[in-house]
Write a structure and sequence with these properties.
This protein is an all-alpha fold. The protein folds into two domains: 107 residues, Lysozyme; 55 residues, no CATH class. The protein contains ten helices and no strands. Helix 2 crosses helix 7 and helix 8 packs antiparallel against helix 9.
Length: 177
């Protein structure tokens, strides 16, 4: 199982001690098959970027840009704001919230209470759900980190930062065994 200490993580990225203490236990609790240095480095590098180093479990933007986006399942007035990005991986849109909710809980609780995705444990659990749903372990295993980032973000937004985190994480995780 790939592991990193809070101190090692804080040396790589501007993660506060409080955030590391809050999120790392859940990151290990739900780690599952994201267990090799190459997989874990790819996951954690993207989570660090997407969440601003564990500062944001909900998107800073209002969500208005997602209003009426049928590709996200936002078909009702207000869906853009209601189902804006949440979790460490910034899951976005009514359809993704519903799919995540059904897969994780067997019901629609994330539709009824979208803020649950912003709670630390569920934010981590949902980020792994997103990773696994998109079969990102298989891509990470090929070493194509850019393709992993594109699958998560839809483009190369923040690629330099993601790559910097990835390289440093991979080095530490390989050293840790």
């Amino acid at each position: 199982m790939a592991k990193i200490t809070a101190q090692e993580l804080m040396a790589i990225a501007p993660v506060s001690a409080k955030a590391a203490e809050l999120f790392l236990p859940y990151i290990y609790k739900y780690q599952g098959d994201v267990n090799s240095p190459i997989r874990f480095a790819a996951f954690l590098a993207n989570v660090l970027h997407e969440s601003g180093c564990f500062k944001y479990v909900r998107e800073i933007a209002s969500g208005d840009a997602y209003e009426g986006r049928k590709d996200l399942g936002n078909v009702f007035k207000g869906d853009g704001r209601t189902f804006k990005g949440r979790s460490l991986m910034q899951i976005t849109g009514r359809a993704n919230y519903l799919e995540c909710s059904k897969d994780m809980f067997g019901d629609d609780r994330l539709i009824k209470n979208p803020e649950l995705l912003a709670t630390p444990e569920i934010a981590v659990q949902a980020s792994y759900w997103y990773w696994n749903k998109r079969k990102l372990n298989a891509i990470a295993d090929t070493g194509d980190f850019v393709k992993v980032c594109v699958r998560i973000n839809g483009g190369k937004n923040g690629l330099e930062e993601r790559k910097r985190y990835y390289d440093a994480l991979f080095k530490v995780l390989n050293k840790n065994g």
